Each structure stands twice: as structure tokens, then as C-alpha cells.
Hints:
The complex is a heterotrimer of chains A (about 240), B (about 300) and C (about 290).
Chain A: E1 3-12, E2 15-25, E3 30-34, H1 41-48, E4 56-61, E5 64-65, H2 71-77, E6 79-81, H3 94-101, H4 109-118, H5 134-146, E7 152-156, H6 164-179, E8 183-187, H7 191-197, E9 200-205, E10 208-213, H8 215-219, H9 222-227
Parallel strand pairs in A: 3-8, 3-9, 6-7, 7-8
Antiparallel strand pairs in A: 1-2, 1-4, 4-5, 9-10
Chain B: H1 16-43, H2 50-66, H3 71-99, H4 104-126, E1 142-145, E2 148-151, H5 152-174, H6 176-186, H7 188-193, H8 198-224, H9 231-246, H10 251-268, H11 277-291
Antiparallel strand pairs in B: 1-2
Chain C: H1 2-10, H2 12-33, H3 41-58, H4 63-85, H5 90-110, E1 120-121, H6 129-148, H7 150-160, H8 162-167, H9 172-195, E2 200-201, H10 208-221, H11 227-242, H12 250-264, H13 275-283
Antiparallel strand pairs in C: 1-2
Helix pairs in contact in C: 2-6, 2-9, 2-10, 2-11, 3-4, 3-5, 3-9, 4-9, 6-7, 7-9, 10-11, 10-12
Amino acid sequence: MLLEASGLTKRFGGVVAVNAVDLAIMEGEVFGLIGPNGAGKTTLINVISGQFRADGGTVHFAGADVTRLRPDQLARRGIARTFQAIRLFKGLTVLENVRLGGFVRGGSPVRAKALLERMGLAARANALAGELAYGDQRRLELARALAAEPKLLILDEPAAGMNPTESAALRVLLRSLGAEGITTVLIEHDVRLVMGACDRVAVLSFGRKIAQGTPAQIQGDPAVRDAYLGSDDDA
Amino acid sequence: MRPGPAMPARACPIQMDQIYNAIFIGSIYALFALGFTLVFSVLDILNLAHPALFTLGAFVALFAMQQGVPAALAVLVAFLVCGVAGVILDRIAFAPLRRRNAPPLSAMISSIGVSLIIIRLIQLKYGPDLQAYPAGTLPAAVFSVGGLELDTLRSAIIALAIGLMLGLTYLVRRTRLGRELRALAENPRAARILGIDVERAIAATFFLSAGLGGVAGVLYGFATNSPFSQMGLGFELKAFAVMVVGGMGSIPGAVLGAYILSFGEIASLTFLPSELRDAFAYGLLFVVLVVRPRGILGQRAVDRV
Amino acid sequence: MDDLAAFLAAYQTTIGFIGLNAMLALSVWLTLYTGQLTLGNAAFAGIAAYCSALLTMKAGFPFPLALACGAALAAAVAVPLGATVFRLRGVYLAIATLAFGEIVRVAILAIPITGRGQGLVGIPTKTELWHIFASLLIIAAALEGLRRSTVGRAWAAIREDEIAAASQGIPVRRYQLAAFVLGALVAGWAGGLAAHFDFAIQPDEFGFARAVQILVFAVVGGIPNVLGPIAGALLFTALPAILQPLQEYRDIFQGVILVLVIVFLPRGLVTVLELHRTARLRTIGAEDVA
């Protein structure tokens, strides 16, 4: 088990955004986190990745208690993430962004360029990150996260705004990450992506985990359908 | 007219006239800090030109009174002139930055630029030395209440300051403008979506903030009868102590912090020489920053990711 | 050569101050480069000025050692000050450094050995122009080198987006503190040189007005590289010396230019050398930071 969250809770004022959630992420798997808007998915990963402080519960990574660590400390331990609203260094170039992604590994331009090649962004290496098209920006954020050579990759809606071709490519990439020793946790609304890329899926609703299992098991689960109010959430 | 609030350094516990002084100076701190806090709570920026508006108020009143305007009216004139100056300040120095979502750092620097201009203009007209309001224009009457000697001037100042604070509280809690300001402070994007005329609300914020700052300046000028072009700097630091103690962005916090500071200063005079009276404020500021930066009533800022 | 010597002699003070102001501007630039505002660097210079002057005057320290001690003291004071506020939002740094500046000024006025309000007189005038410009050259080269290194890139990332920077493993607070303390060190070195340049120093030389001045140098000059603050210092130190009759209005000019620059060319005048990049940044709404 690479990442274990036990009883994780986060409150904002009177609202309990994340309510005693347990997660156990295995090495090498692609783990999906789904649920209706406002279910607490982003808040949960914000707590795991150190942006928010947990009000209760613990997070263990590779056996060590990392509950109280800061984001940069977690990054040094091998956790990388992307953000729901893209947080690129807009005024810096594409190449500089990826080099900074590799900060914990020295920030070498050679490795950064190789990563850009892999993500199909090599041609735009000297463009400013803010000048890229939306889909390219998403890919850049992913490249930046990969530059850290993380053990755990947390992606918050990586396919948002992507067209079907781009999300198919993303699906292929995600499946190959496991082979490279990278574990992935993925928040997504794109059903095809979740079903096609994930080994297991957990469903959050109103801050609680209401279901967990393989994509097929989740699709058939009536509780999950109820949580989405019976509507199919296609991206 | 006494040159300044009387601050006898006594060895015995706090006396009634010390309490009176603390209320008096605390009321002015509060008025001044409220202006800072209003802008900070609604716009998340520290308007470093606020002390210049404070100074401007004192000098606008001076100018008016030199033309024969009575003191009470001069206060109103200062309020209006500074209020308008505040709106202009926003249009020139802040609004363009808002439009392109510039970081707060830019607004602070911009406000420093405006402050330089205002203070220098005042200095060019009046010089850097202490001024005085025209003789006989300020009330000098003294009266007794239960063995305590009070003077009309400071009592009037306390009454006006508290009146303005109550007025601001009413405005923020009970009027539509107040609701709009609170909505803006909480969530600017939502406020826009809800149909609030954001620019108009911001203009009102600056009008009030600068107006109150200007009035604080006049009142302090009256109290010391020695307005001078650098009077804003020392007060600015007191205001920072007030805001940090009370909680940045909290209006009731500003009032609370103001009186905590003023009472603390008076109390500290029992063991500190008067030259180091200001040191109490700085000390308090840093102690709070280390121990409890959010102050008494402040919110811890949570960054949504 | 004679003409040059005559020129240098006549304008010695101004030329010296260009160099000193350039170093002070660079010290503020360091913190600005990470996206924060400090108003305390004049005070750091003041601490070092008094410290080094007293060391040469009363303790017979050799000049270079006194300078080093002064700068070290300034940096040492910067550490707890910065550590207190860098865990908080940026506005607190502005407030804390402003307050710190006043505290230093009040302290100088209160401590008898500094000569209080009268200032410190009789300081050996050991600083020569070549000391100033050699220091400037070394400091500028070192800072530019730092800027182009991993550290500088991390600083730029912090300036762009602190949260994203942290998520890439950059220890944001530590790097901001490093820039701040390094800035204090540079300001301190300049302060020590300044103290021994003219035979007297006064507390007012290191007060709020001075802090604002050096901020103007750095901001108006520009933040993309070390050339900006140096250019800003040159412009604002040399110009008033030339335009003597307009001395009275110097503050107004500085204020107006500061606002104009922040509103229209936020990364500073030096960016006119790279207008194309500035235009691109403006298109994507990143013209304030990068």
C-alpha cells in the first residue's frame, strides 16, 4: 500500500467538506475518485497533498505519517499533483515550467526536453505557458508533475476541456504510468476516461465515501446512481 | 490649549483622567484604522496612501479655517474633500490594476507613489514644520464632571468619533450598501454574478475609508493643534498595531484593537519613559505577529486551490 | 585624463551615491523578485552603518572587517524578522518591515553611543569610489548568477504562483527568507560603505523616506534582471543632481513615475529593451510578475 488515508476529515466553518474518509491506494494502480460536484473530491486531495490541514484522521505515505507535512515536503517525498484550475507559471516558458517541475530532481533541461517530447510539446518549448491552448496547458501541467519523477501522481480533472482524441491519448498515458512505477490518483468527470484507465474507483458524496470497487462494480451500484441523481455524467 | 493629550507618568494605578485620555486617543486610532480596514477587507489590499489622506484632512481643515470657516464645518469639509480624494486615488492607482488582476504587491507600491505626491504637495504649500490652527477657532472651554476635568474639545472629538463608528457599523450591517460591501469582501466573483455594481461599491468604500481617515486627521490635528506633513507616518504604525491586534480585515477588530492599544499605552507609561511610548505599539505588533498573527477577531486566510 | 580627474572630483559624491544606491536598490530587488514588498532595507543599511562606523571609530577595527561585521549584523537581524512574517501573507511583511524601520530609527535616537539625534560624526572617510564600484560589480554579478541558477528560477516560480511552486517541492518560505536575508546583507554592506563615505551619518538617512526611495529605484528600474535596479538608481540619483532647480519637486516626480510605471509598465523601465516579451506577457495577463 502506497498511500493510506484513515478517517480524514476537513471542516470549513460549520460545513464538513470531507467526512471521515478512508482510502487505501496500492502501488502501481490507477485509482479514480468520482462524485457529483461539491462532493469533496478536490478538498480531499488538497488535504492529502498538504494544501489544507486535516481536522481529523491521518495520511500515511510509503509507511510514514505525512499528515502534517507541507506541500513542498510531500513533493520531496515523491507526491506530485496537478490542479483543477490550471496553475502553471504562465509568464515563464514551457521549458522553464517543466524544469521547475523537476526541481526536486535538479531541474535539468535535458530531462525536461525529453518529457516535452513525450507529451508532444517540444515544438512549443519556448512559448510562454500562458500562450498555450487550453488542452496543451493541461498536458504541460501533467508534464511538469511528471518531471518530479513522483511515486504518486495526483491529478485533478486532467481531462477537463480536452477533446476525445486528447483524452484517449491521456487514457493511454495513464495506463502506461503504472508500468513505470508511478501510482496515480485521478479525479475525473469523464466517464470513458475513468472506466478505461482506472483499476479501482471510489465514489464521494457530501464528503463521505459511499462506494468503492472496480469501474464495472461502480457502474452497477445503485447508491452511486442515486448520488448522481440518476443522470449520466459525460464530459 | 494643551500641546497634546496630557500623559502624566505616575507610579499609581490608572486614574480617571488617564482613562479619559485612553478613550480619547483610542477613538482617533479607531477612526483611522477603520479606513485602512475597510479597504483591506473589501479589496484585500493595504492602501499605503491612507496616512497621506489622514494628513490631507488635517490640512484641508487648516486651509478652510484660515479662510474663516468655523471648526465644526471644517471637519465636514475635510471629510468630503478626502472622500473624493479617495475615490480619485482608486481610479488612478488601483482600478487599472484591478482590471488586470494584478497582485496586491502592485497596489501597495502604487499607493506609495500617490502618498509621495500628496505629502509633497502639502509640504510645498505649508512646509515641513508644525503648523497651528488659527487662534481662537478651537474650543478651549473646560468643565467638570464629578471631580474630573474634561475639556470641550476632546469630549467633542470622542463624541464625534464614536458617532462615526456607530454610523459605519449601522451602514455595514443594515444598509444595502453594507450588504454589498460584505458580499464583495467575502467573494468578489459571486458578488458580481449577484448583480452588485462592483465598481460603485468600491468607490463608496474608498469614499468612506478616505473620509474617515481625513476626519481622524482633523481631529488629531485639533487635539494636538500641531498638524505637520509627516504626522501620518507615526499614526500609520499605530494603525498597523491596531489592525494586527484586532485582526486584519475585521471592522469590530479595528475598534477593539484601537482601545486595547490606547489603554495599553497609557498603562505602559507607568513603567516606560514617555519617549518610548511608541515602543509599546511596536512591541505589541511583533508579539501578536509571533504568537497569534490573525489577531483577536481576524480570519485565517485559507487558500482555495 | 586631467578632465576626467576633474570631473570625478567635482561629482565624486554623486557618483559615489549612484553606486551606493544601486546596491541598495539591488537589495530591495531581491525581495521584490520573489513577489514580496520590504520597506526595511534602509534600516538594515542603517544598522550596518552605525555598527561598522562605531567599530572603526571606537574599536579600531580594520575597514573591511568593520564592513563585514556591519553587514553580518544586518543579516542576523533579518533572520528572526523574516522568519516571523514569511509564514504569513505578503501584506504582513510590508507592515513588519515598515514598523521595523521605525523601531531602528527610534532605537538609534535612544542609544547614547550612536550620537542620537545629532548623528555620528568624525567617521574616518575610508570609502573610495573604487570600493563602491568594485562591490557593486561583484554583488551585481553574483546576484545575476544566482538569478539564472536553480535558486533564481525557484524565486521566479514563487513570484508567479506560490502554491504551484510549493507543490513542485520548492520550500517557499525558506527561499523567500533567503532572498530577504541576502538583501539585508547587501544593504548592510552598502550601509557600511556609506557611513565611511561621508564623515557623518544621521538616523534620518536610514528612515522611511529612504526606504521608499530605494523601492522606487528598484521598481521603476525593473525586476527582470539586475540591470533594472542599477538603472533605476542611476536615473534617480543622477537626474536630480543635474536638474538642481527641480529638487523641490523630486518626490512628486518620483511618485508620479512610480504610479505610471506600476500601471503601464509594471515590470519596470528596463523592459523597454524587451517590449516584445512584455507584449506577449500582457496578452496572457502576466505582465505584473514575470
